[in-house]
Specification:
Helix content is about 15%, strand content about 45%. The termini are far apart.
């Protein structure tokens, strides 16, 4: 958690200000792999980070920033060996098919951890598997 120098309105007590600071600075980050259309980068060549307003996928020097309003759907995606987060979006200059590989192997817990973290930031992750491309 990051601490921000924040002095809120006088009518907020210190606990309420701390809750606001926590909400404003909540963020997560996880290392994994990525599939961008037909290009695939395995673990550890991608990082997914998120806060309450954006999800950022960094892969081999490129950053793809998805503002919450451009995310149409987040869902679980099963690959041959891995479980990932499929990001359906409206960013026209980004790859159409975007998956962040959160679990190196489908039996590991990486996706569940990521799902819980994203849900704590206010994102909804569909349980239904997305379609393969």
């Amino acid at each position: 958690m990051h601490w921000v120098d924040f002095t809120g309105p006088a009518w907020l007590n210190s606990h309420q200000q701390a809750v606001i600071i926590s909400f404003m600075s909540a963020s997560i980050s996880q290392t994994g792999g990525a599939r961008l259309d037909f290009f695939n980068a395995s673990y550890p060549f991608a990082t997914l980070s998120a806060d309450t307003q954006t999800i950022r996928l960094s892969c081999l020097g490129r950053d793809y920033v998805f503002a919450k309003r451009t995310i149409q759907r987040l869902s679980r995606h099963r690959g041959l060996f891995s479980i990932g987060l499929h990001i359906e979006h409206t960013e026209p200059s980004y790859p159409q098919f975007v998956v962040f590989w959160a679990s190196l192997f489908f039996w590991s817990s990486g996706f569940q951890v990521l799902k819980s973290q994203l849900e704590s930031l206010g994102y909804e992750i569909a349980e239904r598997k997305s379609h393969n491309i």
